[in-house]
Amino acid sequence: MLRRLFALGLPATTLALGLLGAAALPRPAAAQDCPRGTLDARYCDRDGDLVADAPTNPRDLADPSTLIFAYTPVEDPAVYRAVWQPFMDHLARATGKRVQFFAVQSNAAQIEAMRAGRLHIAGFNTGSNPLAVNCAGFVPFAMMASRNNAFGYEMEIIVPASSTAQRIEDLRGRTIAFTSETSNSGFKAPSALLASQFNMRAGRDFTAAFSGRHDNSILGVANRDYDAGAIANSVLTRMVARNVVRPEQIRSIFRSQTFPTTGYGHAHNLNPALAERIRNAFFDFNWEGTALLAEFQKSEPPQEKFMPITYREHWEVIRQIDAAMEVSYACR
């Protein structure tokens, strides 16, 4: 299906961010001897791995006394602050730094914070990873997986259980909730699917609403605020496990192929020794008996450890979807 999807010309979508003034930001990299591909002008990619290299000038390296960590935007950040506390304690011991949780309200705010140097370690959702890599110098290196390295989630289009809609074509003339334009499963993948497979476009065949987060879309569909919603089923699984929604409130009418889930990484300009300690902390964290395991093992497949990933390999399908939708990684 995706082979056909990528071959089709789809409406242009530009995801550009209004960011802080240049005075607050690192200096652009010199043009000479600085291949960068689609990276912003301030970054270099000399090794061809598609992510920003660490600065070569020691004065441009960051070694903060407090590390700021952010998880992808969720409906109730206080819940995830507690979930992540055992890991942040471990990270503090591994690095010798204070670690502070930053509750972000949107994908754009999270990307802006890393670009401006206010965010050092983060989990960016699937769709916003390319923007974070290209605009903010994000270097992803880990993803949650099961003990046998199974990972990922599917995009589903859900409707209220009592809805008369039985298939995607039945959503013509109705309101479909998306999350945000940076989200893969919450916007980009379903938009490409609707246009290529069903010739359905927002504003012409259905009304698009933006809820801001998967949690909001799921609750909105469950409460019949939206006729349908495009969501990541891993979020739905965890919400059902926490009794936030009941399975009988929602019905799925479409499920996609499997996509990579949240990518974890650090800012490109951290001191290399510090960056290495951060990476090691992810991979030697003991999940047993922690709130992190209690929360994420509810996913399917269960998320029980951090596995190594590369942006070049694991985000290839997401970059293909972005290309099909003519998404721009330009920052301004």
TrEMBL record:
The keyword Disulfide bond does not apply. The keyword Amino-acid biosynthesis does not apply. Pfam families: Phosphonate-bd. Residues 1-31 form the signal peptide. InterPro entries: PhnD. It comes from the Bacteria. Keywords: Signal. Belongs to the phosphate/phosphite/phosphonate binding protein family. This is Phosphate/phosphite/phosphonate ABC transporter substrate-binding protein. It comes from Falsiroseomonas tokyonensis.
